[in-house]
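Homework help thread (please don't just give me the answer)

Our assignment gives two proteins as sequence + structure token strings and asks us to describe the second one. The first is just a warm-up. Here they are:
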Amino acid sequence: MAQENVPQTDPAVYAQYEAKWANEPDTTEAWLARAREVAEVLGQDAAQRDQENKSPRAEIALLKHSGLLKLLGPKKYGGGEQPWSVGYQAIREVAKADGSIGMLLGYHLLWSTTANVVGTPEQIERTHELIITNNYFVGGAVNPRDSDLKITSDGDHIVFNGTKFFNTGGVVSDLTVLEGVLEGTDSHIFALAPTKQEGVVFAHNWHNIGLRLTESGGVKINNIRVPWADALGWEESTKQPREDVLTGAFPTLLLPTIQLVFSNFYLGIALGALEFASNYTIATTRAWPFGGDNKESATDEFYILERYGNFFAHLRATEALADRAGDRLSAIYSKYQSNRLALKPEERGDVAEWIASVKVVTTDVGLRVTSGVFEVTGARATSLKVGLDRFWRDIRTHTLHDPVAYKNRELGRYVLLQEYPAPSWYT
């Protein structure tokens, strides 16, 4: 549970937006415009909030006021009913201003729709109604590099126990997605549980160089009981996995879906760095007076114009690739949501390789742009007060989530051997 003495931002600072955004968007463009409005608010003091490194309760309140937490949910419960392709664009827009909050939005959209991928039709409806009508924010204790949480069966309940080193957004969440292995089997179970209970104990140890407002520290799960009815994809009466839900390629879509979440907030952070740096260059950067071809303004410097142009070209191409992959994944969901067993492994593999391509490119371009902007802003731009460093720190931190070298190898096997990747916790 959250500790009272943990420094946290004050939700009251964004109270005005609850009334301002009382009417939720009703079109795709209106939803993206709302995401840009959120980014504008966050961008006003993003560098200061990053340095203060407080638990982001105010920022989560802002997301709730905006309606963006409901973006993908069914309209009948108050959601936006937008496809993932729009969700990815919204993540990107928010991440341009604040990578941490863009990441939290992305993880929430994944965890809040987990039932769509591994839940029964009844669980899908019940989960959406619970999350959307209460405007809940969802975190997740699902870090595959750690030992799995242990699950035991106790009558009508399953009981989770264990520890996770990373738990993004949990401290500020209303619900937490738990995942573990059922005792005596090799079967994994996902379930949502209320966060505010005695058995959820946060370490409050997220003090990393980047994405400082994501609350991605550790958590202990002690005897958290969840009804068998909430074990996603499992039959309550038989306590067995539903073959029509958890068989085949469809339930493995959870992994490429979140991999594309990652790439879109990388891309948003890089786009934000370019915009932030260009504004700084226009306002502050001085031309170099010792080059022999002296210019009046930094915006006349050949090397500065060349670098910005090159960064812009690569980011524009990356954005087009990300959008294409998002469209392809959205089409998979639209086509197979009501007929999951019809999804062929080859179709799943193809979309996974589109997403792997995006991961490679956003990692490479994002790191190059967020470090390279210092070359065109100048020495004074390294001041902590400026805050340009946070863009690189944010991308550098999360691109270590899983080695991009393995994505390159995977794509190489796809090109040379026409081999689709075996679904895994990272593919």
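The one we have to describe:
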Amino acid sequence: MDQAHNRAIEALQPFIHLANSNSATSPRFVAQIITNATSHPHTYVFAELLETPTIQSLRAPDAPAEYQGYLKLLEIFAWGTWQDYQGIPDLPKLSAEQSKKLRLLTLITLTTKPKPLTYTSLQMALGLPSTGDLEALVTSAIYSGLLHARLSPTTTPPSVNVTSVAPLRDVQPASLSNMAIQLTEWEARCGQVVRDLEAEIQAVKLNAKRRAAKESSFERIFKARVDEHHVEIKSKGGGSRSGDARGGRGNKGKVLAMGYKREADDIEGDDGFFDAGEGMDIDEGAGAGRNNGSGSRTKRVLGERQF
């Protein structure tokens, strides 16, 4: 797209040189410069040519009326449309090359508007009688690098889908004030959007800090509770082990004491028959039965006594 713009500026330079030359003295010669410039296949911008004193001389009151229309024609090629040309009487008649060039320029202008580019609307705006003529013009614009587009003749309604357009139209001087107002309003909207985004960013950062502080507090509380639980488990486990040790030593003492007591009882009841075997019955004699008065005999078992 930039190449098309540079090519258009380069194509206009010879006509600018002619307009600034000493030979451009007659209105007829100036009108011929305008005709040749608007007929050239690669010229699509004309503001620089319009600003030359030679071209502006056609605006003078003493300029012949038959040539004054060429200045208006050049202005239409610079920022006007096909419908503008049709709406102004007494303008110079266009050649086939000029008609195609003005329609191509009009097509570029139409693509910048939000309205859908249907076949019907484009044919009316460009003054084309058939869809074949419209498709041929759009195809020529695509191959010339003026725009990137796709024809959709089978859609309902048939339309032209444009994706990009070359910056090849000049800006009308009277529209500069409106453009400045629109740019100022756009700048104000952009500033408001930036301020809103900054406020959202600050809110997100503040929420993130609060969430991080809350999570950190929760982690500290959780760690403290876990540490307390570990201390409690250690304290309970240590007391149980010490108690078991003490209990084990106490039980061992009791077992030893019981063993010593049993041995003492065995020694105390020993009557010389210890080697006869534990639990061996010994009859102490018939006279011993009188001690019970029932005729029963007293038995002595080694290691313990039974009565």
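TA reply:
I won't write it for you, but here's a hint about the kind of observation we're looking for: DSSP finds ten helices and five strands in the chain.
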